[in-house]
Amino acid sequence: MNQQVVAMTIEEWFTTHRRKLPWRTRRSAWRSLVSEFMLQQTQVSRVVEKFEPFMERFPDPTSLAAADEQEVLIHWQGLGYYRRARNLKRAAEAIVEQFGGRTPLDVEPLMTLPGIGRYTAGAIASIAGKRRVPIVDANVQRVLARLCEDDDEQASKEALDRAWQRAEQLVEACDKPELLNEGMMELGALVCTPGTPACGRCPLASRCASRRSGRQNSIPPPKTTKPRVEVHHHALVIRNRGRLLVEQRGDEGIWAGLWQVPTIESKRKLAPSQVRQRSGLALRELRRAGSFTHVLSHRQIHVHVFEGDLASGRKTGVTRGQWHAGSKLDQLPASNAFRRVIELA
Ligand code: SF4
């Protein structure tokens, strides 16, 4: 592949075909950093909704570093994968402590920040800082593999190393790294998509080895995906004078630090008597309110919702959690599954 021609073709194509996205209308290292954190594992359309409200509340690293973590999680709601919100806050704290509140623009200092790997550092450095550094995400890797007819499993170390080498060669040959890198990602997102790429609309069609050989639909080979682990969550909705019993999840695992109703987790569906016993609560009555399945990338969670009434008297068994006004539940950082539990009950 002629790197210079490919790079210039992508730069030109991106200039005229790029989508208008909020983080592209006004560039700064901080805006770029926040958008990259949000875009990891979350659809663009969802990030579009959330980005500006988040930036209004946290316009710079200093405001995020000083904020209460619970407030940050509330602003992150709807984006999922809350570990990223925590890492973003820790990154903001490090920017304040180590870089005087100014987001770095070079790969090396960026990679010292929590939650930032080579791709994210390269994206911020090249797109916001216009540095001549490569980036490889799933979109870029797919486009490069098809252009070069590289039919290896994309997850293999060798395939990934080759993708970084190719991206490096392209960025060396390009005119504007910020246009090339974002253009490669945009081409992968809009044209050279997983499954069936739209080669008829591709500016690189005449230079693509996979298209020439007619193998563009089978490169890269399909991933071998592990089946999702199935688990059962038994959620107990317990009210008392307009308030709801809620508890905070631990610091590790899914929905870490978010709020929920008391929940008993198990590998199997439990009978109501088992739920009652494992809850440790003195429940006068336990009624089934319904169930639903919540699907995450690696897990399928069957949520069984119960409504319960505590026995009267002092020995209710409530030793953890707190009573929270039902009308103010939206002030708690919580998962979408929790919101569905409340709707069902
Ligand atoms: S010609 Fe088709 S397979 Fe090749 S880069 Fe373009 S969209 Fe992808």
Characterization of this structure:
The chain has 15 helices and 7 strands. The protein is of the alpha+beta class and 345 residues long. It has 2 domains: 3-213, Endonuclease III, domain 1 (Orthogonal Bundle); 229-344, Nucleoside Triphosphate Pyrophosphohydrolase (Alpha-Beta Complex). Strands 1, 2, 3, 4, 5, 6 and 7 form a 7-stranded mixed β-sheet that branches. Helix 1 packs across helix 11 (157-173) and helix 3 (29-39) packs across helix 4. The mean pLDDT is 93. It binds iron/sulfur cluster (SF4).
Structure in a nutshell:
With 345 residues, the protein is α+β, with helices and mostly antiparallel strands. It has helices at residues 3-17, 22-25, 29-39, 44-57, 61-66, 69-76, 83-99, 107-110, 118-128, 138-147, 157-173, 177-190, 209-213, 272-279, 336-344, and strands at residues 229-240, 243-248, 259-260, 263-266, 283-295, 299-310, 322-325.
Give me some keywords for this one.
alpha+beta, 7-stranded mixed beta sheet, 44% helix, 15% strand, Endonuclease III, domain 1, 345 residues, Nucleoside Triphosphate Pyrophosphohydrolase, binds iron/sulfur cluster, 2 domains
Describe the protein's topology.
Elements (H helix, E strand, L loop, with lengths): L2 H15 L4 H4 L3 H11 L4 H14 L3 H6 L2 H8 L6 H17 L7 H4 L7 H11 L9 H10 L9 H17 L3 H14 L18 H5 L15 E12 L2 E6 L10 E2 L2 E4 L5 H8 L3 E13 L3 E12 L11 E4 L10 H9 L1
This protein binds iron/sulfur cluster.
